[in-house]
Amino acid sequence: MMKIEDLYSERVLKMRSSEIRELLELSQQPGVISFAGGLPNPNAFPADVINEIIDKILNSDEASTALQYGPTPGLRQFREELTRFVAKSHIKAKIENTLVTVGSQQALDLVGRVFIDEGDVILVGLPTYLGAINAFLAYGAKLVGVPLDENGLRVDLLEEKIKELKRKGEKVKMIYTVPTFQNPAGVELSEDRRKRLAEIAIEHDLLIVEDEPYRMLRFEGKELYPIKYYDDGQHVIYMATFSKILSPGFRLAYVIASEEITRKLIIAKQSVDLCTPSFTQMIAYHYIKNGYIEKHIPRIVEMYKRKRDIMLEAMEKYFPDGCKWTKPKGGMFVWVELPKNVSSIEMLKDAINEKVAYVHGKAFHVDGSGENTMRLNFTNPKDELIEEGIKRLANVIKKRLANSH
Ligand SMILES: Cc1ncc(COP(=O)(O)O)c(C=O)c1O
Known about the structure:
By secondary structure, this protein is of the alpha/beta class. The protein has 2 domains: about 5-45 and about 295-405, Aspartate Aminotransferase, domain 1 (Alpha-Beta Complex), CATH 3.90.1150.10; about 65-290, Type I PLP-dependent aspartate aminotransferase-like (Major domain) (Aspartate Aminotransferase, domain 2, 3-Layer(aba) Sandwich). The protein has 14 helices and 14 strands. The strands form 3 sheets. An 8-stranded mixed β-sheet has the order 2-9-8-7-6-3-4-5, with helices on both faces. It has a 4-stranded antiparallel β-sheet with strand order 10-11-14-13. Strand 4 and strand 5 (about 150-155) form a beta hairpin.
């Protein structure tokens, strides 16, 4: 009998299944109030406008482009529109700096493909986005964690870490960061740390992968420049997605990087999928060009801010002493630190029994820490279920605490 294990590539042996994707299935049982996923609210999808745009495209000459294979870097008119779109976020880009990808998850994978050899070090936050961890691990990266605080990544500790790793002869290549309303912690990297991070990359010849899905989901506070703004044009690979401001079903995102890096990413993409679907690019092109996106984002922000407020108020009311949580100014997540002796992994069984779900925080920590942490999503559940879900969760925590004494 053939043993398939003997045939797998070494690369496949390094791949990990996403604990979260598996957990999502559990949380979809009937009656479970789920704070587990990272899903936008379906009411945030502009279905009627999309319908109108599709109708126009299919009844015009554009149909032949929308239904055809496209160039690997993306449709030219869409890339051009993107250069104008990112300028509003203070990013200067020419079409040669722009690459359209199938979600930013693909962009992360392409970065891994182009830059990571076995054992190369990537510095990431503690905690950090699980999809990036898994993408980079698949290429054999060694992920080294740097703690976060309420102002995001501890850039001072990061610099010490880089020096220490270099002294040990490690090949430090990259810093991966989600500076605005981070997934999972919800925190925002402060302005001075953004500047400093760009300087560190330049001083140490490193790349920064700046992953910005939540930049436009700001409920309050002043908009900060992206790290890319402080870059000399060579060091920051910026990526953003339409998943949270239009629809994740479009699987549409983009990368802004130096011409040299963009060329390499394009070559890597050629063998992955030839091109991003022309159809969704064409829809998104009209969606941006005609200003729908500017009208739509404030509606999403209003909805999510309301949901955040309901969640935070309920947490204040029901959560027991000894729990701490972030108060995000935007994005989709609240991050909770439970008392040290409570394992959010063990507690998950109790939570599912009580018909409430979350993601345990250990999955987001590359150093195995974070056992007493968890991530709560506030954007997907209905308003009227958020308070009830938090109440259930608070009871689960209280029971755990009572049993652990
Ligand atoms: C930080 C971060 N990066 C990337 C992604 C993947 O986004 P996309 O839907 O564009 O693949 C997500 C999705 O939740 C995310 O939170």
